[in-house]
Amino acid sequence: MTQKASNTVKHNKITWKEIKRQKFLLIVSFFMVVYGFIFYYWPLTGWVMAFQNYKPKNGLLGSEFVGLKKFQFLFGDATFIQVIRNTLAMGVLNLVTSTVMAILFAILLNEIRSSCAKKTVQTISYLPHFLSWIIVTGILHDALSSSGIVNELLIKFGLIDTAIDFFAHKEYFWAIVAFANCWKETGWNAIIYLAAITAIDPCLYEAAAIDGAGRWGRIKYITLPGIRPTIMILLLMNIGNVLNAGFEIQYLLGNGLVKSVSDTIDIYVLTWGISQNDFSLGTAAGMFKSAVSIILILIANYAAKRMGEERLF
After folding, report:
1. At what angle do helices 23-36 and 3-21 cross, to 10 degrees?
2. Is the pLDDT of residue 137 over 90?
3. Could you tell me the pLDDT band of residue 304, with boundaries at 50, 70 and 90?
4. How far is CA 265 from CA 71, 93, 115, 247, 279, in A?
5. Whole-angstrom distance, CA of residue 163 vs CA of residue 149
6. Cα separations in angstroms, 283 against 9, 92, 278
7. 75 and 90 Cβ atoms separated by less than 8 Å
8. For residue 249, which of 152, 297, 178 has the smallest C-alpha distance?
């Protein structure tokens, strides 16, 4: 037996021994792979509907094949172009505001010296994340109504003369959505930034303090560079969710007066796919959303690679 063959046999023996030793983990992994295939990949066969004039009674195999007709209708529909604009606008606003606020909150929370106060503030900041959008939109409706606390404060301080109906003016809707997302998710999103900050070597802060760096100097030259890789990775991951601008908050807060700025791709899919039983058109809109998300991640990852930043792959 040659040396190469001997090494191969030895390698195989070690491999099978390792497999037997890790058999429980492999069994669990197998079931997770099966679960992922059944619930994440098998449903993608339904994308065939986007190229058919799908009829539930005929099924996927019996429905008429129409090629790209549904996509041609989509991009010729002014309403769909409008919902793309709305989705992108709210998605970008949510991405920028939620990222910036989470980083600022994590840095400010890290600067609190009292451990008890820090834990209390951190715990309170998590709570909105666990509220359903039904509750959040209810709070927003009460606060921003004509007789709500926001209008009362604005009138009391002389900023306005008469109450504003915030949900009747298009120019306020995107800002309201961005504020609601920030209020609900800032505390939760800050967790990973706080973890990244705690991983920074405390000796760096001590050395900076000895050199005369103040609190702002330590944040600028130690904290922010220390969490920069984390910021880049999370930013890349979240860029793919730009078109997931939301459904619940827009659907619950939207009305006929602000419909032109409140409808998103998800609401468009609901309207055509469910309400009007055009499952093929709804599927085509969903496919477009997924394709754009993948393209955005690839572009952002390539840009990060070119700039020498952290990237996903």
Report:
1. 80
2. yes
3. confident
4. 14, 16, 44, 9, 14
5. 11
6. 51, 24, 9
7. no
8. 178
More confident residue, 3 or 57: 57
How many angstroms separate the CA atoms of 190 and 199, rounded? 14
SS3 state at 64:
strand
Instruction: Report phi then psi at 53, rounded to 5.
Output: -95, 75
Backbone phi, psi, residue 52, to 5°: -130, 165
pTM: 0.84
166, 144 contact by CB (below 8 A)? yes
**Average model confidence (pLDDT) for the chain?**
88
CA gap 308, 266 in Å, rounded? 35
178, 180, 264 from 93: Cα distances, Å: 6, 11, 14
Residues whose CB is less than 8 angstroms from the CB of residue 195 and which lie 6 or more positions away in sequence, other chains included: none
Q: In sequence order, which ranges of the chain are alpha helices (DSSP H)?
A: 3-21, 23-36, 59-62, 69-75, 78-110, 115-126, 133-144, 149-156, 170-198, 202-210, 215-218, 224-239, 248-253, 259-262, 265-269, 279-306
Question: Residue 33 CB: number of other CB atoms within 10 A?
Answer: 10
Check if the beta carbon of residue 230 is closer than 8 Å to that of residue 193.
yes
Question: Which distant-in-sequence residues (6+ apart) come within 8 Å of 234 by Cβ?
Answer: 99, 192
pLDDT tens digits, 99-124: 999 999 999 998 888 889 888 998 89
Q: How far apart, in whole angstroms, are the C-alpha atoms of residue 73 and residue 70?
A: 5
CB 265 within 8 A of CB 285: yes
Please answer whether residues 262 and 242 qualify as being in contact, where contact means their C-beta atoms are separated by less than 8 angstroms: no
Lowest-pLDDT range of 163-177, 182-196, 250-264, 265-279: 265-279
**What six digits make up the tokens of 32?**
């997770």
